[in-house]
């Protein structure tokens, strides 16, 4: 972060969104938004001041009074329009995303599309935000529930999915009648801001959606502010644990989706070619910068003989800038990220794992300054090695061995993380045993990255998640609403009075 005036540069300065208006920040602290393939500075993003954060929360609080009373059909129609606008601008959004984040254009379109699915789900809010009703539970008494919005909610999103994860958050929060303050990643906020512009164009009223930028101080302000009722977070375990503790101690609802070490268990009866393709795609796609990446594979029994074939498959992947046709693996987000990944690869060698494929410092003509790491594969890894214990968040696949399915399940369950896992097999019995015995929130059966569609909830578990409700699907409606139970009796004026009743009974 540089503490210099934005006037000193010719690049655009990202604005804040407060009360329906895009406004320049008065901050003196800015960070460059850098193309990870070229190091070109695309924009400068301000770290919002305390007063600006307060103003955004204040605008959301003021807007809540009327927004909560907006008919549910009117809210739904905004998101019907919004999904149309996202579809119409899909390629533009993908191009912005690739420039600032680095992933391939095809993957960037997928990033936007998976967020679009949640917007479509938000448009069905009339069928989702339903209470319960029981008629005549006692003499003339009815009981029913109302799912009412909480108030101002906040979202803190990571760099790796700058379209999808913001779209996980504010559409469902707003559709359920809340107002929202979003803090996107300061590393790549441009596509998020374009999505916010389209949201306003779709009809989200002033103050219902607000955006502030910044680092730890802004995160802490959102966690501490008494008018913020709920906080949703996706990011690292270190920051997520801090957010959960700080916001929950302030009395807020909190959901934190955090780090992972996702295992793919490969049985020798699996379809070999399909499995190798799935492993390579899930480990090296998005340069491994996915919280659901299959970064670890457990080869069971004779499947250990597949290592040379897996290495050969990885060698076919093309490392290049995300804008270049045919690219499979783009750059990691920053120079610091590349150095960290390279350091972990060196640690793996030092700790005795076998480096089957070394992706450090690949040659990428025309992009010599890019943050590139090519596909990297280790075999012979074990718990206790840094490459196994830490989330690398780069294009590195770590291979472990097991003699039996039972041993593989025990290995996965001993890892503290529980975001996602997968099994590759043609045995229904083995798959069923795996899904029943594995202690991980999301399970794929011959599916390497089992992120559910929005009809279902994202259900990471254990050290990968804090809070008991997921960020979309049915669970998020519960997260963003307060259940109010009403018990009602209406008296018939012609009926005789029943007299005083001093018992708890509703007769």
Automatic annotation (TrEMBL):
<dbReference type="InterPro" id="IPR016161">
    <property type="entry name" value="Ald_DH/histidinol_DH"/>
</dbReference>
<dbReference type="InterPro" id="IPR016162">
    <property type="entry name" value="Ald_DH_N"/>
</dbReference>
<dbReference type="InterPro" id="IPR015590">
    <property type="entry name" value="Aldehyde_DH_dom"/>
</dbReference>
<protein>
    <recommendedName>
        <fullName>methylmalonate-semialdehyde dehydrogenase (CoA acylating)</fullName>
        <ecNumber>1.2.1.27</ecNumber>
    </recommendedName>
</protein>
<feature type="domain" description="Aldehyde dehydrogenase">
    <location>
        <begin position="22"/>
        <end position="486"/>
    </location>
</feature>
<dbReference type="GO" id="GO:0004491">
    <property type="term" value="F:methylmalonate-semialdehyde dehydrogenase (acylating, NAD) activity"/>
</dbReference>
<dbReference type="Pfam" id="PF00171">
    <property type="entry name" value="Aldedh"/>
</dbReference>
<keyword id="KW-0520">NAD</keyword>
<dbReference type="GO" id="GO:0006210">
    <property type="term" value="P:thymine catabolic process"/>
</dbReference>
<dbReference type="InterPro" id="IPR010061">
    <property type="entry name" value="MeMal-semiAld_DH"/>
</dbReference>
<dbReference type="InterPro" id="IPR016160">
    <property type="entry name" value="Ald_DH_CS_CYS"/>
</dbReference>
<dbReference type="GO" id="GO:0006574">
    <property type="term" value="P:L-valine catabolic process"/>
</dbReference>
<comment type="similarity">
    <text>Belongs to the aldehyde dehydrogenase family.</text>
</comment>
<keyword id="KW-0560">Oxidoreductase</keyword>
<dbReference type="InterPro" id="IPR016163">
    <property type="entry name" value="Ald_DH_C"/>
</dbReference>
